Amino acid sequence: MKKIAVITSGGDAPGMNACIRAIVNTAWQHDLEVIGFRHGFRGIVEDLNVPLHPDDMRLVSQRGGTFLKSSRFPEFREVDVAKKAAQVLDQHDISALVVIGGDGSFRGAHHLNQYWGGQVIGVPGTIDNDLAGTDVTIGFATAVDTAMDAIDKVRETAEAMARVFIIEVMGRHAGFIGLHAAIAAAAEAMILPELEPQPKLAELADGILQARAAFPDSSYVVILSENLWPGGVHELSKNLSKATGVTCHPCPLGHIQRGGRPNAQDRILAMQLGAAAVDAILSGKTAMMIGLEQEHVVHVPLHLTFERDKPLDARLVQLQLGLQGVNITSKTSK
Amino acid sequence: MKKIAVITSGGDAPGMNACIRAIVNTAWQHDLEVIGFRHGFRGIVEDLNVPLHPDDMRLVSQRGGTFLKSSRFPEFREVDVAKKAAQVLDQHDISALVVIGGDGSFRGAHHLNQYWGGQVIGVPGTIDNDLAGTDVTIGFATAVDTAMDAIDKVRETAEAMARVFIIEVMGRHAGFIGLHAAIAAAAEAMILPELEPQPKLAELADGILQARAAFPDSSYVVILSENLWPGGVHELSKNLSKATGVTCHPCPLGHIQRGGRPNAQDRILAMQLGAAAVDAILSGKTAMMIGLEQEHVVHVPLHLTFERDKPLDARLVQLQLGLQGVNITSKTSK
Amino acid sequence: MKKIAVITSGGDAPGMNACIRAIVNTAWQHDLEVIGFRHGFRGIVEDLNVPLHPDDMRLVSQRGGTFLKSSRFPEFREVDVAKKAAQVLDQHDISALVVIGGDGSFRGAHHLNQYWGGQVIGVPGTIDNDLAGTDVTIGFATAVDTAMDAIDKVRETAEAMARVFIIEVMGRHAGFIGLHAAIAAAAEAMILPELEPQPKLAELADGILQARAAFPDSSYVVILSENLWPGGVHELSKNLSKATGVTCHPCPLGHIQRGGRPNAQDRILAMQLGAAAVDAILSGKTAMMIGLEQEHVVHVPLHLTFERDKPLDARLVQLQLGLQGVNITSKTSK
Amino acid sequence: MKKIAVITSGGDAPGMNACIRAIVNTAWQHDLEVIGFRHGFRGIVEDLNVPLHPDDMRLVSQRGGTFLKSSRFPEFREVDVAKKAAQVLDQHDISALVVIGGDGSFRGAHHLNQYWGGQVIGVPGTIDNDLAGTDVTIGFATAVDTAMDAIDKVRETAEAMARVFIIEVMGRHAGFIGLHAAIAAAAEAMILPELEPQPKLAELADGILQARAAFPDSSYVVILSENLWPGGVHELSKNLSKATGVTCHPCPLGHIQRGGRPNAQDRILAMQLGAAAVDAILSGKTAMMIGLEQEHVVHVPLHLTFERDKPLDARLVQLQLGLQGVNITSKTSK
């Protein structure tokens, strides 16, 4: 019986468990045996293996996080370490490895591919959605829902107290969560790494002042992507408070965005991609990521997923810029 | 100043409010005035008009239901009634009407189009997703999340008590909610109108018995679409209990599936389509539905949305059939 | 080392896992060993034992259901079966048994107490809250939240469509869930087993007609306790539709009310009572239930918990009757 | 017709809307007219009055925040400002004022009472629960649920990545939210203002190291009350990282704790206290807060609510200290 392995790697994302279930169950249908290594690439090197059987997959897809656990493991860039992983995989007679993770994990998978003869298949699992070659990544939809729910909550107290909030969301170096959360939560402004030109402090302050003049009784919510403003949300809030004379409250959403039960979209996506990963193995593919583009499963060479940038959907950016502009100016300019 | 009107019609769906916001704000950007009629087509006929301004749209997109209210209004099929609506619209100098609703509402819109000279634009808003010409409808994603959350809850007590549950979900005459909820909740079986051939009682009973033999300690969940099994979920549960000797508990999810705050996917979809509806009006289109296909906004002649059937995604059906088969048989057949 | 056992019995309730955690961790602090039997009393008789250690309790309190599983086991009323259980407990050298469950389970515990020499301690775990001797039972608060959330969802679609809904909630033969859900969801009417006199059909119909006259645009929600109206919620809806000429939609909430992650109140209650159960064992108590009255832990002879009825809080009944009366009549009578 | 007024004041809290509904509906039953002033005491001074009628209260109790809006208004401490408020109240012929808020608001109410002849009644509404004379305050239960849900989410990613998190919760200068959230989320450690002696850095570091040795694969969660550690959660995380050599991630939950739909407990509490406030007015009381002690409504002189400290429940502190100790040490010391 042929044997395949699976790991979850890098930042965990809601839906990873559903993906593992689909891999294990689909493999089982085709008489493939599956083992997992805990804690990602580190777990391969340290041989933290665990057999995976459909019987144990019945109730995992409902849960957040990853029961296989994950880790960041920069040491894997070293040739010796990758070779050690190859050796462990060979000892277990593994013929294919599925890596569920983001761009760092796919660099690792690509690296391993040079020192190991088995097939390597990537499945995009990251809340940040910053992988080229797929419209969506596992965990992104849930993270957006979580951010939106949190912003909705902040909106309620902001509205009750007529306050300005600067809310920092995750996204590493991409604005996907920020953009989608801003639209969904009907934010008054957004600051994302991809915006050209970046909004200046003076403009942001001006938007606040304009809205305060028009709606003195109301809330005002700015969405800020992490890793973007020097000093982060606290510094921006301080600067905006000073520039406007209105207290701007900082609110970093933090790691709640990585947790939570996956929503339906993420579970279904995860199972589609997991099943497709096994199909790709059966048809002999290697060094490929399984993606979803325009609702179709696609195979993308691994290196293309992290060598290219993935742009935001320009139409969604325009949509939000238009809607938020009206939010601010409707009363004053009419 | 040009004036347009908007109604929500038929069964309400989460996201309708976000759609109205996008219509009002986008119209305002282009100097169009917007009025709403409450309670759908009936509200036009009875002239239940209400002016809509961006200032009132700031906090509506977060909320479920439709603040414009909706209704079913079969009388609208009569020529006189449609003519009366046309007259009211003309009295208000309306040049275009946006109808947010499902197939019944689009039949109404198509009907009105024959007796009224203004532009008629449809936006797909129904939890059932049973409209041809668009991949998704406003409210569908939230309804699937709501159904999934409910099934997850039932799963917990089912698992604690080692019980079989037959869970009935909405969908009118289509299996979209059933299919997506079944995948997301990792159901052991599903009965959808589109399955060919339909699963027979004997097969369903056999699945239950097989799983009980393999996992006597565990839960078993069957998803049933409404309007499908004669006598509904109660009759099916009775029949299955008799056929298997195992008590099968009926659980109709009911109208909770229509409520709830819209999730991010529905809010974003609703705003995209709402903004696109105004764009379509500006470019002179009429008798068209605004849809989303493969992530792109499309315009579809209204009559094509209800004259054709919309099939389930066959790949998702296969995915679930495969995964659920493994859930049931993994232990016994190995 | 002294050894104690724990079971969860009867209908599962959110918070049971947190209670088990508190029992195991508290026992461990006092050098008591703990084993669980799966599936309640049946599991004792069939010796389905499983050792329980704090290491395995770290992440259980967040989850709904009961990982020890439960069951209904009417056979336990037979003397031979109870004696068999006593024998198994003795074989394991168990000196005390904690039973987490409702009144049926406490009858079982009381029965066992007559044929077994060890200590028997009950902890009230049932969503129905129908146990005398304690203000609240584990699972009740979460069930009320779940019912309320569901009613809130139904309210949204009811409001959008100006509909009347009759919503059936759980409670076996007690109106606790019904009363608390009715207040929390601002229902227009409620039908609970404890109301004296029971509202008649004519009165219920009258309330609906009065409200429809005053608020023709609005929703109307009646809460009905299960096992109360002949024919249940479907029959009542049919009768009310006929009596009023207004379609009244039935909506049984069903088993979702037993599932779901426990809320904070239930987790904290569960841990208080679980820890107190171990304290009671250490101080030599037996045939006692651990309850919470006016925020204090109390010990109540087991038989008093099921021999007496537990009344609803009359002040809460009056509160809701007053508030709902105003909901219906404010406009008409002013 | 006698006229009463109501304000929400200070930090908003989930449940305030339900409380307003109960006040308005109960007043209406007794032929009292009700007006609200927006934005708390400031709204009285600026005469931002709005009439309140039961018809508008039908759907408010489901919503978070306060539709009357609130504000902090330190100027109210000045005699002239309080006199101005008295004057406005007299102009409106108000005979009684209900203030829903926390200790700052009750100081304001007490102050007003010296310059105004009407009755002044307080209702405890603050998420912090830091008011003497009542076991619970409106908003506290929801805030604890919100904090717990957030910590549960962080726990999932912490568990997947085997990480240590320091999570900062609200509470102003009291540990109620911290304590209840720590129990409910099964935290490994907590730092609350009331703990005597305060845990030292060395002890905290030691707990982390001990647990990492025993459970190297697992998460570790410390709950920190705000306004307690110099430099806050970021400084504490830095110090602990340094002391242990393990990265400790800071996670301030922030203002999401003030938002959200009120849970059932808060809605029911809010309606009880709101109705009791009107009863107190009718029976001639003044300068009193309506509280709930041991499930009974009580009247407490306003000044006693803010002049005394409210201690944590010592039994709950002991419960959590015991349970968390076992979480950390069970494996190592056995």
What report would you give on this structure?
The structure is a homotetramer. Chain A is built from eleven helices and eleven strands. By secondary structure, chain A is α/β, with parallel strands linked by helices. Chain A has two domains: about 5-140 and about 260-305, Rossmann fold; about 140-260, Phosphofructokinase domain (Rossmann fold). A seven-stranded mixed sheet of chain A has the order 3-2-1-4-5-10-11, sandwiched between helices. Chain A has a four-stranded parallel sheet with strand order 7-8-6-9, with helices on both faces. In chain A, helix 5 (about 140-160) packs across helix 6 (about 175-185). Chain A is elongated, with a radius of gyration of 22 Å. Chains in contact: A-B, A-D, B-C, C-D. The interface between A and B is large, with 53 and 54 residues.
Task: Give the SSE map.
The structure is a homotetramer.
Chain A: E1 3-8, H1 16-29, E2 33-37, H2 40-45, E3 49-52, H3 79-91, E4 94-101, H4 103-113, E5 119-124, H5 140-161, E6 164-169, H6 176-184, E7 189-191, H7 201-214, E8 220-225, H8 232-244, E9 248-252, H9 264-282, E10 288-293, E11 296-301, H10 302-307, H11 314-329
Parallel strand pairs in A: 1-2, 1-4, 4-5, 5-10, 6-8, 6-9, 7-8
Antiparallel strand pairs in A: 2-3, 10-11
Helix pairs in contact in A: 1-9, 5-6, 6-11, 7-8
